[in-house]
């Protein structure tokens, strides 16, 4: 048995990395929902699989967000094992009201976090 990472797991890894990036920027998603009624939803994914990860591989997942409009952003992400690129993709994230799922402007704190990444 090869013990390869199932391809869908990269979406989970990317989601966790985005969540931790937001948390490091001061945006807890549960708190955001409680305070503002806003949530983030995945609107589109495009992934390219280059090489499988294996059991016990130590992976690094990158998060490179860019604004894509008032209510969304595109996050470029990569899964790396050392210097080897395993998977890369773009995920479009939308900001919506939790109760209506209607698009809403990205909160200022999220816009600031994206700007900080893009000016670094």
UniProtKB/TrEMBL annotation:
Domain Thioesterase, chain residue ranges per copy: 9-87
Family annotation (Pfam families): 4HBT (PF03061)
Which family is this sequence assigned to?
Belongs to the 4-hydroxybenzoyl-CoA thioesterase family.
> Which PANTHER family would you find in this protein's record?
4-HYDROXYBENZOYL-COA THIOESTERASE FAMILY MEMBER, ACYL-COA THIOESTER HYDROLASE YBGC
CDD domains reported in the protein's UniProt record: 4HBT
Record organism: Roseateles puraquae
Which protein is depicted?
4-hydroxybenzoyl-CoA thioesterase
> Which residues fall in a coiled-coil region?
none
Alphabetic keyword roster: Hydrolase
Superkingdom in the source lineage:
Bacteria
Question: Is Endoplasmic reticulum among this UniProt entry's keywords?
Answer: no
One GO molecular-function annotation for this sequence? fatty acyl-CoA hydrolase activity
InterPro entries documented for this protein: 4-hydroxybenzoyl-CoA_TE (IPR050563), HotDog_dom_sf (IPR029069), Thioestr_dom (IPR006683), YbgC/YbaW (IPR006684)
């Amino acid at each position: 048995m090869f013990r390869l990472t199932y391809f869908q797991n990269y979406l989970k890894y990317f989601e966790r990395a985005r969540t931790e990036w937001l948390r490091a920027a001061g945006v807890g998603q549960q708190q955001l929902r409680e305070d503002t009624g806003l949530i983030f939803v995945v609107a589109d994914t495009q992934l390219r699989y280059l090489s499988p990860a294996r059991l016990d591989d130590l992976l690094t997942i990158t998060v490179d967000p860019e604004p894509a409009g008032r209510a969304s952003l595109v996050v470029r992400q990569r899964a790396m094992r050392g210097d080897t690129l395993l998977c890369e993709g773009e995920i479009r994230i939308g900001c919506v009201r939790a109760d209506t799922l209607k698009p809403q402007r990205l909160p200022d704190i999220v816009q600031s976090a994206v700007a900080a990444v893009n000016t670094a």
